[in-house]
Amino acid sequence: MNKNLEQSFVTQLQENQNIIHKICRLYTDNEDAHKDLFQEITIQLWKAFPKFRGESKFSTWAYRVALNTAITLYRKTKRSVNTVTYEGQQHFIKDVDYNYEEEEQLKLMYQAVHQLNDIEKALIFMYLEDKDYHEISETLGISEVNARVKMNRIKGKLKKILNP
Q1: Which domains occur in the chain, in start order?
Q2: For the range 152-160, what are the long-range contacts, defined as Cβ-Cβ under 8 Å and sequence gap of 24 or more?
Q3: Cα pseudo-dihedral 33, 35, 38, 42, rounded to 10
Q4: Which of 26, 38, 115, 131 could pair with 126 as two cysteines, CB 3.0-4.6 Å apart?
Q5: Integer Cα distance of 84 and 36 in angstroms
Q6: Average pLDDT along the chain, 164 residues, taken 10 residues at a time
Q7: Which Gene3D superfamilies would you find in this protein's record (predicted)?
Q8: Tens of pLDDT along 14-58?
């Protein structure tokens, strides 16, 4: 892989790593699993990057790869993540500390979201990230109408979970 492509990947990943951290938070329930899933998503993004054609924003593409990786691993291992060893060039990506204490007030919301199915988690996550229904539908591969209907159902489900 050429140096420009590698540098482009590292730059894009650094700018968008919070997306990956948030997805990891949705699909894991401890720090070690979070780190393992983050690593696996990064590996999958790296493997797929040469095929990224720029037809959508990097963040949209990264959402799709990260969510697919998390959902696939979540289903396969039932909440434990087996990582793939990456034997290749070292890539130095500055790690941004992810502070769990800052998110303590969101604990109840995360507990409620953990009760949703995989697709519902992905949809609510993108909605909470202020993604419009066009981007949500493009990322998840569903129609905008379907995304809106699912979102309304998810909101109702979360209300029942949070206010029994």
Answers
A1: 1-98 (1.10.1740.10), 102-164 (1.10.10)
A2: 154/116, 154/120, 154/123, 154/124, 157/116, 157/120, 158/109, 158/112, 158/113, 158/116, 158/124
A3: -130
A4: 131
A5: 9
A6: 80 88 85 90 91 83 88 64 47 54 64 84 86 87 91 91 82
A7: 1.10.1740.10, Winged helix-like DNA-binding domain superfamily/Winged helix DNA-binding domain (1.10.10.10)
A8: 898 888 888 888 888 888 888 999 999 999 999 999 888 878 888
Within 8 A by CB and 6+ apart from 20, the residues are 38, 41, 42, 62, 66
Q: Is 59 exposed, middle or buried (0-12, 13-18, 19+ CB in 10 A)?
A: middle
Q: Which residues contact 50 (CB under 8 A, 6 or more apart)?
A: 1, 5
